[in-house]
Write a structure and sequence with these properties.
Mean pLDDT: 87
Distance between the termini: 50 Å
Strand content: under 5%
Largest sheet: none
Low-confidence stretches: 179-185
Number of helices: 13
């Protein structure tokens, strides 16, 4: 019989694919009805809300008496975002359409933030911080973005929304008898100064990884659809594989080897597309490792740990693209 933790990880990973895909699908669909300035503005603060608010939604995930209220709130916000986006296309008044477009970005960004920290915390506590499960959960969003970038349509958007609702209900049904048992396992807390130093080091590492990963991605010519899908797939596969690599060979040894490999590929990449694709895969292998370590130094604060590392992604991304 399949362990419930495996089923829940699979469900949350599938929802991660759909949530990230839905948000990008919706924004790209509205792009054709809005000016370039509107799209860039909405896309910017969607990402700010989706990433930089995660420390706060992570605190919420740690504090809520019922862990799945946050999932329900996320689904409601995503639903409202899709409804507002649909409404914005039915009105003839450009000011109302513009307002609806901006409101859509806000709703999707907040819904995305709530989902990620809920999923990150639940994956950690239901699997006792299993690094393989963490890698599976964080991996799928990248491929969802790639799929939506290429195939965004209203039918895909509504299909993703319905699938998110069904998977969320399935998760709630499976977990209904176990909600009260989460987070009972505790570990002795580390001294505050050690926690702060470790978190700062991990956040700097995540920021650097985001910068390097974006440099690899931007350097890969993506004029063909299969390359976009390949980039998304390799990012997903790297995050997924990183958890298994660390489980097999040890966290410290795996991290050391992966960092050395990424550095070598960064120096040697030149104009070689193969090197850049290998670098993209390797740098993503480190993601479950940093998340695992953050959970180790912050026991029972898995939501905040996830949120802080997610927020650290944004500065690295901006440094790479600006």
């Amino acid at each position: 019989m399949i362990n419930n933790g495996i089923i829940k990880t699979g469900l949350s990973a599938a929802m991660h694919f759909l949530v990230d895909g839905l948000c990008l699908c919706c924004l790209f669909l509205l792009d054709s009805f809005a000016g370039d300035n509107d799209f860039l503005t909405v896309f910017l603060y969607y990402n700010v809300l989706a990433f930089l608010t995660q420390p706060f939604s992570g605190l919420l995930a740690d504090a809520l008496p019922h862990p799945h209220w946050q999932l329900l709130a996320s689904v409601v916000l995503l639903l409202l975002g899709v409804v507002v986006a649909t409404f914005s296309l039915t009105t003839a008044a450009s000011t109302i359409s513009s307002f609806s477009y901006h409101l859509t970005g806000i709703l999707l960004g907040l819904g995305n933030s709530l989902f990620h920290t809920w999923g990150g915390k639940q994956t950690a506590v239901t699997t006792d911080n299993d690094i393989r499960a963490l890698g599976v959960f964080v991996s799928t969003g990248a491929f969802g973005i790639a799929v939506s970038l290429l195939f965004h349509s209203w039918s895909l958007l509504y299909t993703m929304l319905i699938a998110i609702g069904l998977l969320a209900l399935t998760y709630l049904y499976i977990d209904k008898g176990e909600v009260k048992t989460l987070n009972k396992k505790t570990r002795p807390p580390f001294p505050s100064i050690i926690v702060c130093v470790c978190l700062i080091a991990l956040m700097l590492a995540v920021m650097l990884r985001s910068y390097v990963g974006e440099r690899f991605s931007c350097a890969i010519p993506s004029e063909h659809a299969y390359i976009v899908l390949l980039i998304g797939f390799l990012a997903m596969a790297g995050k997924m594989a990183g958890g298994w690599i660390a489980r097999w060979f040890g966290v410290v040894r795996s991290l050391f080897v992966l960092v050395a490999l990424v550095a070598a590929l960064l120096l040697l990449k030149g104009n070689s597309q193969t090197m850049m694709l290998c670098g993209l895969f390797a740098v993503n292998c480190t993601m479950p490792i940093t998340l695992y370590l953050a959970n180790v130094v912050m026991p029972r604060r898995e939501g905040l740990a996830f949120g802080l590392l997610a927020a650290a992604l944004m500065p690295g991304y901006l440094m790479a693209v600006l």
